Structures are given as C-alpha cells and as structure tokens.
TrEMBL record:
<dbReference type="InterPro" id="IPR027417">
    <property type="entry name" value="P-loop_NTPase"/>
</dbReference>
<keyword id="KW-0732">Signal</keyword>
<feature type="transmembrane region" description="Helical">
    <location>
        <begin position="556"/>
        <end position="574"/>
    </location>
</feature>
<dbReference type="InterPro" id="IPR030386">
    <property type="entry name" value="G_GB1_RHD3_dom"/>
</dbReference>
<dbReference type="InterPro" id="IPR036543">
    <property type="entry name" value="Guanylate-bd_C_sf"/>
</dbReference>
<protein>
    <recommendedName>
        <fullName>GB1/RHD3-type G domain-containing protein</fullName>
    </recommendedName>
</protein>
<keyword id="KW-0378">Hydrolase</keyword>
<dbReference type="InterPro" id="IPR015894">
    <property type="entry name" value="Guanylate-bd_N"/>
</dbReference>
<keyword id="KW-0547">Nucleotide-binding</keyword>
<dbReference type="Pfam" id="PF02263">
    <property type="entry name" value="GBP"/>
</dbReference>
<dbReference type="InterPro" id="IPR003191">
    <property type="entry name" value="Guanylate-bd/ATL_C"/>
</dbReference>
<comment type="similarity">
    <text>Belongs to the TRAFAC class dynamin-like GTPase superfamily. GB1/RHD3 GTPase family.</text>
</comment>
<keyword id="KW-1133">Transmembrane helix</keyword>
<feature type="transmembrane region" description="Helical">
    <location>
        <begin position="481"/>
        <end position="500"/>
    </location>
</feature>
<feature type="transmembrane region" description="Helical">
    <location>
        <begin position="507"/>
        <end position="524"/>
    </location>
</feature>
<dbReference type="GO" id="GO:0005525">
    <property type="term" value="F:GTP binding"/>
</dbReference>
<keyword id="KW-0812">Transmembrane</keyword>
C-alpha cells in the first residue's frame, strides 16, 4: 500500500511538471483571443489567448489581417511569420471558414523600433461574408481589428470592390472621430492601413494607382444614397492618405490547395521576393500601440481590449459612438474633478445668485476643458451630456448643502436675536430708547450675517417676532415706568428727608408722587395718564437720563447706586460739618434755633 501510494504521488508530480513545461512550449501556437457567442452576433474574450498576451512586459504592437473569407489571410500570416501551415495558423481548404473570431500567434516577434524593444503580435481574423453570419458580426470583427492593431493589412484578391470600400466605413468614422489631433494625447494612434492586392497582373498600373482609382468619386446623377455614402468614405480615405499604403503580391502557385505542402523553392520566385519586401514594409511602418500617449504592455493591452469589446458589444450594431464614450470616460471624470475643485473652494452658505454665478463659471471652465480634451467630433455629444448631467448632480448637492448651512446660520442668528429681545423685555430700568437700539442692532446683525436661500424665510420670522416683542414691550412699558416712578418718588422722599435732609429733593419727590397718585384717582385709570403732556415730558426726561450715548443707566445702576449710597453715608457723617457754609439751598437744621437767640426783654 505504501509503495503504491508513493508511486501515485510521484506520478502526480511528474504530470504537474509536464503540464508546466507544456504550458511554456504551447505559446508557440495560435490562440483565440476573441470568439463569437453562440448566436454569432457578438464577441467575447477567450482567456487562453489573453494569457499569451498578458505575460509580455515590453511594449506591444499588433499586425492584423482582414479580408473576405477564403482569401488566404491565414496562409499570408504564416508566410509573414515564416511558419508552415502545420505549425502556424490553420488554413482551411473547405467551403466554410476556418478561423472563428480573432486569433493571435502566441510567440511575438521581437523588433527594435526607434530604439525600443517591441513585441509584435500577428492577428488572424475571421473572413467577411461567410455563410451563417450576420453583417453586424462582420462589422464587429472589422471594428475590433481596426482599433487594436498597429498595422491593418486589408487582404483583397484581384481588385478593390465597392463592398470592400464600404467595409472601411468604421475606419473612416474612427479617423473622423479620433485622428488628426496632433500635438495632443490621442485616444489611440491610428493603425496603418495596408492595401494588399493579391493579383498577378495590374494592367500597366501600380497598385497605388489602382487603389487611388478605386477611391475616386463615382458619378451619382440618380441621387443614390448608397453611392453618396461610399463617396463620403472615399473622401475620408483620401484624407487618410498619409496613413495608408498599398502593396501587390502575386499568386504563390497555381495549385492553391497544395500551398501548405510546397517549400519556398517550389513557389513563384516573384512571390518569394515580394513576400520578403512585404515583411520589410510591415517592419518599417509598425509602431507600438499607443493609447492616450502611452505605449501598452501585455496586461495593459488586455485591459484596453476588454474596454473596446465592451463598447462594441454595447448596442445592436458596433458604433464609434460607443468607443468615443469609452475614451471620453476618463476625460469626463477629469473635467468633473475640475468642477468639483472649483466649487469645493466655496465657503457656504452664500447668496443663491453668487452660488449660481460661481457654478456658471466653473461649469463653463469644465466644458471648455472637455472641448479641448475630448475625443470624437460627431459622437462626443453623449459624453458631453453625461458631463453636464454629472455637473448638475454635483451642483444639486451643493445647493442642498448651501440650504442646510444657510438654515443653520440663520436659525442661530434668529435664536440669538430672540434671546436678546427677551432680555430687553426684562430691563431693570425700562427704556424705549434702549429697546429700540437693541432692536435695530439685532436686526442689522441678522441682515448682515444671515445669507443664503433661508434668508427670506427667516426674515419673515424676524419681522413677526420683532413686531410681537415690540408690541409686548410697549404694552408693559408705561405700566412698569409708572410703578417705577411711584417707587422712586417715595424713595427720594425718604432720602431727601432722613438721609441728606435736602428739602428741595423731598419737595420734588412729593410733587411727583402726588401728581402720579391723584391723576390716576381723578381720571379712573393710569392708562389715561399716558396721553397727558406732562407724562410725555416725564417719559422724555426719563429716557434721556436712563439711556443716552454717554450712559446706560440700566447697566450701571448698581455701581452708581452703591457709589451714591457711599457718598450719602459719607456726607451724613462728615461732609455736612465741613461744607455747611457752602450750601446755598435750604436744608434741615437739627439744632434748636431758639435757645441761642438773645432775649428781647
């Protein structure tokens, strides 16, 4: 049992080591990276092929071959890679297409491009117009190959047809949306378009002349929309002339079904020569894949591919608009951060109009930055609208925050004013002037400090509170002043008679007391007194004494009262003896005046 157990363990280890060595050697074969879904309408990633790419740490470039099915794309790639049909891409001799989706050769070619060591992958794509596929699926294959490749070889047998030009509509849209932004970080650099015409005779024309002739305007006297569309593509391809080239390749051999079994010595010498020239041409025009100003390594290329495929599968048909949204997503986020940074500097709360002005300026700045940085000309509208919606959402939150801070500030000021008014209601010495001064100061402080959207609401509350408090103060003011004056007159009677013994003070106090008491007895109530001119004079005098710019008697009443009491005590004990001769006003004399007078008789 022990021996069999160890044999089993050793076998498992050997299988594991064998599988590891197989996984390293297996990179020398083609892998699918994009496959069709069961409905053959959309594309999905194949992890097997992505692992072959993601392991590369150097900058990556891709050469993709596109064209009709059974046009020799797989054989051409094997020739460019110097591989036989039995070790390279599978070559189909049957009626149906051999390659499904997009395949990659697992071992890249290492080239030195402008001093940078670059890994060049070769991609084989599923042919157009094969049986059992939709045109939308072909469009997705073409679109994906256009975006992910650095060199796009358009493999065409014999000649350039109208349908072949129409296939380039996606490349044209990409050119119109992304290319031509020189001096800025483009979303991705355009693939070099290589027209490859496999034809033995060009009837005295160069392949470049043949392509240029195919791209000339076609007369459209009947107003056919399809012809107009193809003519627009022709015009755009002419603009892309600096980014495209043409090359002719003769047939390698008349026996096309036997090509995989033939060596270079068996092939047409002209074909072998032109094939080597084609290799040199591809090597001379290829560049590392650049996305937003940065070359991609394996993992970054896979991440880029995932985003592109998600965008192309987004709708019923692949569109450049979806790609524009992908590349503009980061720019939208960047512009939104710019808006947030500007609005984040605000000190809330602030007036609504001021906030709106800052919002308008910040939004204008963010939109200006988007206009300068965004990708896409016709299809950037959705990204623009997305940025506008995001800005509106952020602004909505800022408005809510401004309302909250405004409500807190105004509530605090309102409460403070309410407390101050309550204190004014219970003044020790009632004073209308002091109440009005405190009222105005509170109102002025509220108007200066309460800002924001809550101001109008709290202003209404302030008006109601102030009006109610003022009415209550006025209602109690006369009664409190009357009671205080009655008490004051009695106190002054006592002070004038027994403390300082100043007869004029006592007389004035008696006059005030008699007036207050007899008037209210004669006219039924004290309210009638409040309309008497004498009362108005008394009130004016009281207000002048109690509260004026020099003295607030309500605040200093206790210190002044203590000082006066001490002064009177001093005067009562010492002052009257020292300064008796200086008093000009009559005072009480406590000595018996009759005992000192001489007798008359």
């Amino acid at each position: 049992m022990d021996i069999s157990h160890w044999v089993f363990v050793v076998s498992v280890l050997l299988l594991f080591l064998a599988s590891g060595s197989f996984s390293i050697d297996s990179f020398h074969q083609p892998f699918p990276i994009v496959e069709p879904d069961p409905g053959h309408t959309k594309l999905r990633l194949s992890r097997e092929g992505l692992e072959a790419i993601s392991r590369i740490n150097t900058p990556i470039a891709a050469v993709a071959v596109i064209g009709p099915y059974r046009s020799g794309k797989s054989f051409l790639l094997n020739q460019l890679l110097s591989l036989s049909c039995y070790e390279g891409f599978g070559v189909g001799h049957m009626r149906d297409t051999k390659t499904k989706g997009i395949w990659v050769w697992g071992t890249p070619l290492e080239l030195n491009i402008d001093g940078v060591r670059t890994s060049v992958f070769y991609l084989d794509t599923e042919g157009f117009e094969s049986v059992g596929k939709s045109n939308v699926y072909d469009d997705r294959i073409f679109a994906l190959a256009t975006v992910m490749s650095s060199v796009l070889i358009y493999n065409l047998p014999e000649t350039v047809r109208e349908a072949d030009i129409s296939r380039l509509s996606f490349a044209v849209e990409l050119a119109e949306e992304f290319y031509g932004r020189f001096g800025q970080d483009v979303a991705f650099e355009p693939a070099k378009l290589l027209w490859l015409i496999q034809r033995d005779f060009l009837e005295g024309k160069t392949v470049k002349e043949m392509v240029d002739e195919a791209l000339r305007h076609v007369p459209n006297t009947g107003g056919d929309k399809n012809i107009d569309q193809v003519n627009q593509i022709r015009d755009s391809l002419a603009v892309m002339g600096d980014n495209s080239t043409a090359f002719s390749l003769p047939q390698p051999h008349l026996m096309r079904t036997k090509l995989c079994d033939l060596k270079d010595d068996d092939l047409d010498p002209m074909y072998v020569k032109k094939r080597e020239q084609l290799k040199e041409l591809v090597a001379s025009i290829i560049r590392p894949k650049i996305v937003q100003g940065k070359s991609l390594n394996g993992k970054e290329f896979v991440s880029f591919l995932e985003k592109i495929l998600e965008a192309l599968n987004k709708g019923e048909i692949p569109s450049t608009g979806s790609l524009v949204e992908v590349f503009n997503k980061g720019i939208v986020e960047r512009c939104l951060k710019l808006y947030n940074r500007r609005m984040g500097k605000l000190r809330l709360p602030m007036p609504e109009q001021s906030l709106q002005d800052v919002h308008d300026r910040s939004r204008e700045e963010a939109m200006k930055a988007f206009d300068e940085l965004h990708f896409g000309r016709r299809h950037a509208k959705s990204s623009f609208e997305q940025l506008d919606e995001d800005i509106k959402e952020v602004n909505k939150n800022i408005i809510m925050a401004n309302e909250y801070h405004s409500a807190r500030l105004c509530e605090a000021l309102y409460t403070q004013c309410e407390d101050n008014v309550d204190q004014l209601q219970v003044l020790r010495l009632p004073s209308m002037a002091k109440f009005n001064a405190g009222f105005l100061q509170c109102n002025r402080s509220f108007e200066q400090e309460c800002i924001g959207p809550s101001r109008a609401n709290y202003e209404q509350r302030m008006v109601k509170m102030m009006g109610k408090s003022r009415s209550l103060f006025i209602k109690e003011y006369n009664q409190r002043l009357f009671n205080w004056l009655v008490t004051f007159s009695l106190i002054m009677v006592m002070v004038g008679r027994f403390i300082i013994k100043f007869i004029l003070i006592e007389m004035a106090a008696w006059v005030l007391f008699i007036f207050l008491e007899t008037y209210t007895r004669m006219f039924w109530s004290s309210e009638s007194l409040y309309y008497n001119p004498v009362w108005h004079f008394i009130v004016s005098t009281w207000e002048t004494i109690v509260y004026n710019p020099i003295l607030d008697l309500d605040r200093w009443a206790i210190p002044i009262g203590c000082t006066v009491a001490l002064w009177m005590l001093y005067w009562r004990c010492y002052g009257r003896r020292k300064h008796k001769s200086r008093w000009l006003l009559p005072m009480y004399n406590s000595h018996k005046s009759g005992s000192n007078r001489p007798r008359s008789d």
